[in-house]
Amino acid sequence: MDIDVAVEGSGTPALVLHGAYSTRDEVMPVLGPLLTARGMRGVYPDLPGMGESTDSSARSSDEVLDGLDAVIAAHIGDDPFVVIGHSFGGHLARGVAARHPDRVIGLALVSPLVDDFEPAPERVVEDDGRVDDLDEAVRDDFTGYFVVRNARTREAFENAVRPALGRYDGDVVEAIMTASTLTPDPGDVPFPRPVVVLLGRDDAFIGWKAQLRLMDAYPRATVVLADGAGHALLHERPALVRTALEDWLDRVSA
């Protein structure tokens, strides 16, 4: 299985996993500067069926983890590392930590997909009425993802989300999300390292209530539930995300 990988910086590795129907282009503009400023090495795979990894034979989440094991061997080696996962990437990040509990020194989950998720009620938090500033071809993509709709989030959409639009093989993505079992089950593998879970209260895609149960799985978890943000929390509340991740990385370093 071929997984295309971009690597930036040097230092302690951070394996960064983007969400489904997306690419690393969505997470790198937000997380790259943070990792670089911390003197860390960002390892950014395009997950199977997405971005530069569309030519993939993966048909389950476990097969994706097999591919990520190869990425780890090739680009991280024997070094300890942290894992950051966004959305479906958060689901996979838990699987990576379960496979490598002695080497993963920290786990960050941003709007993570979990089993039995409960979407929050749909609502628009803010709308400045200028959605027409966006090209008509991508307006639905913006309004379907962002519950905060203003000049700043339109810029975030253009810089991070738009470059990832449409760059996926739908059959592959659907297969790996449908066959979503992780081996070993993360719930069966103790993980006593620092964890941070970031959630948007207005996440109408996967909600936040089910994710609170992750506190039972991770005894060192900090959970941040953000008012006024949805599934695009990474882009709608970037300062909060950076602050929470900085605090998490401080705990990892300690």
Automatic annotation (TrEMBL):
Classification via InterPro entries: AB_hydrolase_1, AB_hydrolase_fold, AB_hydrolase_sf
Molecular functions per Gene Ontology: hydrolase activity
Keyword annotations of the record: Hydrolase
Name the UniProt record assigns to this protein: Alpha/beta hydrolase
Record keyword Transmembrane helix present: no
Domain AB hydrolase-1: 15-241
Organism this protein belongs to: Microbacterium aoyamense
SUPFAM superfamilies per UniProt: alpha/beta-Hydrolases (SSF53474)
Highest taxon of source: Bacteria
